[in-house]
Amino acid sequence: MHARYAFRGPTRMMVHMDPIRPATAQDEAAVMELALVNDMFGPDELEGLRSAFRSATSGEEDGHQWHVVVDSDDRVTAAAYVAPEPFADRLWNLYFLAVSPAAHGRGTASRLIGYVEQLLRAAGSEAARVLIVETSSTEQYAAARAFYRARGFDEEARIREYYGPGDHKVVYWKALTAG
Prior knowledge:
Elements: E1 5-8, E2 13-16, E3 20-22, H1 28-37, H2 46-57, E4 65-70, E5 76-84, E6 91-99, H3 108-123, E7 130-136, H4 142-150, E8 154-164, E9 167-175
Parallel strand pairs: 6-7
Antiparallel strand pairs: 1-2, 3-4, 4-5, 5-6, 7-9, 8-9
């Protein structure tokens, strides 16, 4: 997945592919900006995300992983955060997935989630068997819900009014192992 180019389609057209790499402490500001520009968090809500980023990138949280897509100038254009779900059997949670608005609709999020799934599958069934994603039921997140369904995630649960009145948590589920 670190290749800069890939062939696509029946005519084998060359398509530029920005690399995916583990996030570093230097990516923090760019990742926080992705959360803001995508209206996922307000400025006063970033502290928890910032804390999760710092503890994962410093290695304080075992298994917690941030991955970023970077352009040719090493600028972050997308980010994902995945971690094992505590008290669950080999279940992982994709806590964060965001793409720069300038890169929306270019397949960046699909590549990044595919990369995360590939990493988890490569870890083997003894380490990872299920990936879940949690999102909001509001209209603002309709495209996110459609995105996860289109990538093979099943809606597994809704927790009513989790995020507030009329804003339910929607949980999507995907098997990482056969059977």
